[in-house]
Amino acid sequence: MSVKTKKGEAGSSSGGGSSNHRGESVVVDYGKNKSSCGYCKSGARTSISHGLWAHSITINDYQDLLDCGWRRSGCFLYKPEMERTCCPAYTIRLRVGDFVPSKEQIRVSRRMQRFLEGTLDCKKPGESIENPNASKDTCSHTHLGVSSSAAKESCSNNNEEKGGEEEILHFLSDQVDNSVRGCSESGEFPDIQFPKASVKKVLQAKRKLLVEGSEDLLYSSNIAFQIAATIRKSLPGEKDAHQGRLLTNITDEKGPSPKLIAEKLESSLNQLAKASGLLVRACNGHLNFYSATKQASSYQSAQTVSVAKGSATRSESKGCSVKNISQYNPGKRPRLEIHLKRSSFDSEEYALYRRYQIAVHNDTPEHVTESSYRRFLVDTPLNYVPPKGDGTVPPCGFGSFHQQYVIDGKLVAVGVIDILPRCLSSKYLFWDPDFAFLSPGKYSALQEINWVKENQAHCSTLQYYYLGYYIHSCSKMRYKAAYCPSELLCPLRYQWVPFDIAKPLLDKKQYAVLSDVSIRQDSLQPHVSEEVMKVQHDDSGKEDTNDFPMYDNEGAFDSEYESSDNEQNLLSADVEDGDFGNILIGLKGSRVRFKDIMFAFGASERSYLELQLHRYMRVVGKELAERMVYSLE
Predict the structure, then answer these.
(1) Which residues of the chain form CATH 3.40.630.30?
(2) Which residues on neighbouring strands pair with residue 287, listed in sequence order?
């Protein structure tokens, strides 16, 4: 699918800095920052990183910073202090020429293709009549919207029925996975990697065996038993006090209880539901799905299933999922357009972002402000480089962009990306919850990979797709390794190490010098392990690839600056005294080397500044320190 480039208006590119230096990088050193961690949710300020505020930055300098472990949130650049932070974050990338799509990724592409061809009518959410008494049901029943009337006509043959049933089973499995993930994020389940849920059709002969009076039982999942076994295996002695406290909600005298786990998942699904049709019940550890309308238990027609995302009770997302999707005429082929525009504020994009954050991430409406959105996803310090037509720059140029996904004139997703000399760096994706059934996170990632492949003809240096940070200790981020064959950046030598080679080290400890195991890499032939090939990311897509912003909701830094005299010896060991003399200093509108002005400062002031420059050179490297402007203004 072709991508149309919009000229649009220029984005915010200086972050409040002067626009007179668009051809150079100008940064302010924020030093060490401590903040709360959005991954392990420790509650304390255990996430430690070094921060820079960028007034402007060239695309070459930012590319080099990425390859040293840096990343940006708006105009704020940050790099985890890998040996000290609670969740070491490794930069992960994919060489697109070697990309091998998994079965799941292929299935996502085919599903979108069927949707665009108009053959996915019976598989996407359909229109249903809301039951006014639905809210009066007991908490042990969850309603999942079901519509079969429109599907009976369009799915009459057996092949289509089978395909429709497979889509429903996959959809329900995804909803259970989302519930498991939600319980893990909320702290009700421990933060470990759980098996993928599998919802299966219950055969007629087995229904009475499972539960009495179950003539309307359609589907069932035993995921609670698998979760219980995984918890027992991962936390055999419950040595972690924090995790032990979590387990009290889902354990009995015998340990992790499938019955309690199934009830917790049922409760979670109940919070997601808003339309009547299917009921969900936890029965002796099984998660069962029933037909609420007492229809024939045999699969006479393909039914479409719809589950509203997490904030069904919130006013801003009320009554949208089933209604909006049903507006698409089954006889009309939807039209998908992908537009690439330079980063700039767009009211329609902000409205979609606001809805996404509230529905998917459960943010409160008052915390999703225009100012925080601008600072996080619109403002960019990257200096735009226009196309040259000489094979060195892609037709869109280099810089920060928003890639819009539009279906029949409706904006349904926006990918925030940086296009640099060697890569496309994926920063954030937000999407319309009504279109979750199309797996927008997975689909957009595949589109971004294809974009790099297509634009290599215009810019031969474009070779990679950067997926942000990979945190091995965070199970929700391990899906990134499913884009094979991926590489992780060694935090010490800044060498790229194949994931399969790095994984054994990360299995043993969170922080590892990855290049230690790749010294003999030339003699090794990396392969894609079966475990990596089994890793797939769920339909919530890239909200997990999205790195947590370094801002709070009002755009202020959620961090504190820390400086220690004890760092002097450590820093001096890495940087020779004379090295920082060539650091380029920005002072009173001039650009001078520190060695040329160092004696203009008093002894104590000079000593303090030298300490800062030691630290700065250590985290950005000698070449970048001498190339970028270290602003003292």
Answers:
(1) 89-119+335-522
(2) 221, 282
- 59-100 per-position pLDDT tens digit: 999 999 999 999 999 999 999 999 999 999 999 999 999 999
Q: What would be the CATH architecture of the domain defined by 167-231+256-291?
A: 2-Layer Sandwich (3.30)
- 0.90 cut: is pTM over it? no
Q: How far is CA 74 from the centre of its chain?
A: 16
User: Crossing angle for the helix pair 258-272 and 223-234, nearest 10 degrees?
Assistant: 120
Tell me the C-alpha distance between 270 and 250, whole Å. Answer: 18
Cα–Cα–Cα angle for 161, 167, 169, rounded to 5 degrees: 105
Spell out a b/e string for 462-481, using b for 16 or more CB atoms within 10 Å of the CB, else e.
bbbbbbbbbbbbbbbbbbbb
User: Measured between alpha carbons, how far is 541 from 536 in angstroms, rounded to an integer?
Assistant: 10
Name the CATH topology of 89-119+335-522: Aminopeptidase (3.40.630)
- Write out the residue limits of the CATH 3.30.1360.70 domain(s) in the chain: 167-231+256-291
Query: Which positions ≥6 away from 212 have C-beta within 8 Å?
Result: none
Distances, alpha carbon 229 to alpha carbons 127, 234, 235, 264, 531, in Å:
39, 9, 10, 16, 18
Tell me the pLDDT tens digit for each residue of 461-503.
999 999 999 999 887 787 899 999 999 999 999 999 999 999 9
DSSP 518-578: GTTGGG------HHHHH----TTGGGTTSPPPSB-TTS-B--EEE--TTHHHHHHHHS-TT
Tokens of 75: 């105009």
